[in-house]
User: Which sequence fits this backbone?
């Protein structure tokens, strides 16, 4: 379980995240939804110590995030960003196994775990010796997910990982990943500005604006019981949304 | 892990191997040179005497004459550090004990080195020398004074015979050596004594002035009165009608105590006093500049001819004589091919390589960490980058003179240090820029994986910045190949030896024979780094791949 207490951060006088005290349940997929600059990525980056908060604290599974604990917390957290955040000088295989090699796992353990995550992320093993620049966008994303899954972390933080993909690949991956998260029982925080994606993935949605949480609930809550006019506008702006999306 | 690590490990391995190779190269040749240069009274087993000379024909010849004479005493191993940059560098070498003696001129000594008010006051000079732990012999015979010279025809046409005549011709173009322009007994004193209407003229290399004068690009140049080029080029030496120039009697300047340490050697050298008159010296210079004969051969002939007139003072066995003989830098002047691949080619190439790659290795070892520090810290960036850039602006001869005083020796050590300092900037700057250019998303990914600082640096950041770092090292290497030619001015060898000698002799063939291999070496360095790039960089990062990481 993740708990934040008064967590906030400003950039150059602009409040990117207003003090936020909330929690995220184990085993659930929570989508942080909102327009650009609403603070959703800032929140995600604060949770894994990529940003230092101005005030407030983060507690993950009972451990408070701090300089002494951040590395251990990161080892128990998968982080996936757009295009997978792959290192261009490493092959797909080396990208996936980088952490394991750093932690000096033995070869057998690495090979076994590699086989598992490659299968989970549905990567063609023939692609493993290729460099990211020769993979397609979807393939790169799968490698990024496999890399995040390698240490079998209970928590996955995903920052718009599918934004750069074409609609079909994106649709397939959304369904596939939802199935994967359910099967593995991962706690997932997923950042997107796309209501369709939230609909496909979320157990729970945090709609954010200007560094604040505007409404928290299911998609049906947002559609049927909008907390304020912004929620209605945000939902309506994502046109083509069928009326009965609620899961 | 095997397959996985390969990309990273083999690259790092190759890099390491290259570095170890270079280090070995440097360390094998360094101690040898260092030991050579560590000549001094403290070495008792085989006393070593080091003769110095400056970078012009006459000084080379006199250096060889001193070397041969000292060898003939059979008392010490004698070496000749030839063609040291200028008076400042030779003085620093003498003061530090890197050389024991060389031929200096009384006028230079009084005005420039000791800064005496009256250059003719012999007692004042002796006292000033004693304070510095130095002494000088009686004059060797000739007076090689500074003088101004013009083309005979032009001087005739303008009616100029004396320096004071120049005052009426303010449009004349002067070309003087840098040393002459800067010396108290040179241009500043001359201009005020004669109230000459010229701005401070352009400084030129001594050997190049005669060509510029003949080509009509200069009208008046400074010469040494024993310059062979005066007669060869049909020059008129202007009369010093207001007695500005003091006498420049050639004397042997040496570290005090030499007589006591090597009495027979000193006796042999002292026997040279009064034996070289103006005509003799001019003839020896002319022979050297006519080409075809090495300085050593000319010195040898002079000494054996002299020996026929006067019996030698000391007839020591030849055994001790040949051991430390310096190889002469001058191949016979025949064709460029002969000059290029003369017998000194391998030695010069070896020295040049040690200079370039030894200093490059040091620059890399120091520069890469400095660059990493700069990339990590704004404060470091604010101080380190300007500091290494500042080093770049120090003129090479000034830096060398300073380093000679600092190390108290000439040769490889100060030369390597200077090249090391000059090589820092491209490496530090490129390392820093390469690291800063890594996209934030990749830094975040590396952080989010939970990799500590060292692992991020070694596994992610340095491999990603390696292309930029290699480019910086390459820039340093190419600059160093060129800059290494100045090492010859302080006796560190390399192809600069041919360039320095070629300049001193106005010998274009020899100049080319030094410049061409240096240029070839620069090309080789380029090739070496292209191949390093394709070996060390991960395939997607190679320039040829055409596709840069996002």
Assistant:
């Amino acid at each position: 379980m993740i708990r934040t207490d008064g967590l906030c951060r400003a950039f150059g006088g602009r409040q990117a995240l207003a003090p936020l005290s909330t929690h995220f349940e184990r085993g659930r997929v929570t989508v942080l939804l909102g327009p650009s600059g609403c603070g959703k990525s800032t929140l995600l980056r604060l949770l894994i110590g990529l940003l230092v908060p101005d005030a407030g604290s983060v507690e993950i599974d009972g451990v408070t995030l701090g300089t002494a604990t951040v590395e251990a917390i990161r080892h128990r957290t998968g982080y996936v960003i757009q295009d997978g955040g792959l290192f261009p000088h490493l092959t797909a295989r080396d990208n996936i196994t980088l952490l394991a090699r750093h932690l000096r796992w033995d070869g057998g353990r690495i090979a076994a775990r590699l086989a598992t995550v490659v299968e989970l992320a549905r990567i063609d093993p023939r692609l493993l010796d290729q460099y990211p620049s020769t993979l397609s966008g979807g393939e790169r994303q799968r490698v990024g997910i496999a890399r995040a899954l390698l240490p079998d972390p209970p928590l996955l933080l995903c920052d718009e990982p599918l934004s750069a993909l074409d609609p079909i690949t994106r649709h397939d991956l959304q369904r596939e990943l939802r199935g994967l998260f359910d099967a593995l029982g991962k706690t997932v925080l997923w950042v997107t500005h796309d209501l369709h994606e939230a609909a496909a993935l979320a157990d729970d949605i945090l709609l954010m604006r200007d560094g604040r949480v505007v409404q928290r609930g299911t998609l049906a809550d947002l559609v049927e019981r909008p907390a304020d006019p912004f929620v209605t506008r945000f939902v309506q702006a994502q046109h083509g949304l069928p009326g009965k999306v609620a899961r | 892990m095997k397959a996985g690590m390969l990309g990273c490990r083999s690259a790092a391995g190759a890099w390491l191997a290259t570095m170890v190779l270079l280090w070995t190269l440097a360390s094998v040749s360094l101690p040898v040179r260092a030991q050579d240069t560590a000549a001094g009274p403290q070495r008792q087993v085989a006393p070593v005497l080091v003769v110095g000379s400056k970078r012009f024909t006459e000084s080379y010849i006199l250096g060889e004459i001193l070397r041969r004479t000292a060898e003939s005493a059979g008392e010490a191993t004698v070496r000749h550090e030839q063609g040291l940059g200028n008076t400042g560098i030779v003085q620093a070498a003498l003061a530090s004990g890197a050389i024991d003696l060389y031929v200096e001129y009384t006028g230079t000594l009084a005005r420039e080195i000791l800064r005496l008010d009256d250059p003719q006051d012999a007692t004042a000079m002796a006292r000033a020398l004693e304070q510095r732990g130095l002494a000088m012999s009686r004059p060797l015979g000739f007076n090689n004074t500074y003088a101004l010279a013009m083309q005979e025809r032009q001087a005739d046409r303008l009616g100029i015979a004396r320096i004071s005549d120049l005052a009426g011709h303010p449009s004349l173009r002067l070309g003087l050596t840098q040393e002459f322009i800067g010396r108290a007994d040179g241009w500043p004193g001359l201009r005020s004594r004669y109230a000459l209407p010229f701005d401070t003229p352009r400084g030129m290399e001594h050997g190049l002035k005669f060509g510029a004068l003949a080509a009509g690009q200069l009208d008046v140049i400074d010469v040494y009165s024993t310059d062979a080029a005066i007669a060869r080029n049909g020059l008129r030496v202007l009369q010093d009608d207001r007695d500005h120039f003091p006498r420049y009697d050639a004397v042997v300047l040496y570290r005090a105590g030499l007589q006591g340490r090597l009495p027979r050697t000193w006796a042999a050298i002292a026997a040279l006093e009064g034996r070289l008159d103006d005509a003799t010296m001019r003839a020896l210079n002319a022979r050297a500049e006519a080409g075809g004969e090495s300085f050593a051969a000319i010195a040898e002939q002079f000494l054996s001819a002299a020996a026929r007139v006067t019996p030698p003072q000391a007839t020591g066995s030849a055994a001790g004589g040949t051991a430390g003989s310096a190889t002469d830098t001058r191949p016979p002047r025949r064709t460029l091919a002969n000059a290029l691949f003369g017998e000194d080619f391998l030695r010069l190439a070896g020295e040049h390589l040690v200079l370039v790659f030894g200093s490059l290795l040091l620059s890399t070892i120091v520069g890469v960490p400095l660059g990493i520090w700069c990339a990590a810290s704004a404060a470091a960036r604010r101080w380190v980058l300007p500091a290494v850039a500042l080093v770049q602006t120090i003129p090479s001869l000034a830096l060398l003179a300073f380093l000679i005083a600092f190390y108290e020796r000439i040769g490889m050590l100060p030369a390597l240090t200077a090249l090391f300092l000059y090589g820092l900037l491209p490496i530090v700057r490129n390392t820093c820029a390469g690291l800063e250019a890594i996209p934030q998303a990749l830094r975040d990914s590396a952080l989010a994986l939970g990799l500590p600082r060292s692992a991020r640096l070694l596994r992610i950041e340095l491999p990603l910045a390696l292309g930029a770092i290699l480019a910086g090292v390459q820039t340093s290497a190419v600059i160093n190949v060129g800059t290494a030619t100045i090492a010859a001015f302080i006796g560190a060898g390399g192809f600069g030896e041919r360039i320095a000698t070629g300049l001193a002799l106005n010998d274009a063939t020899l100049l080319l024979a030094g410049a061409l291999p240096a240029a070839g070496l620069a090309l080789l360095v380029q090739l070496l780094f292209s191949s390093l790039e394709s070996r060390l960089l991960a395939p997607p990062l190679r320039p040829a791949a055409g596709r840069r990481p996002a």
Remarks:
- Chain A touches chain B through 38 residues (CB under 8 Å).
- The radius of gyration of chain A is 18 Å.
- Residues 195 and 238 of chain A are 7 Å apart (CA to CA).
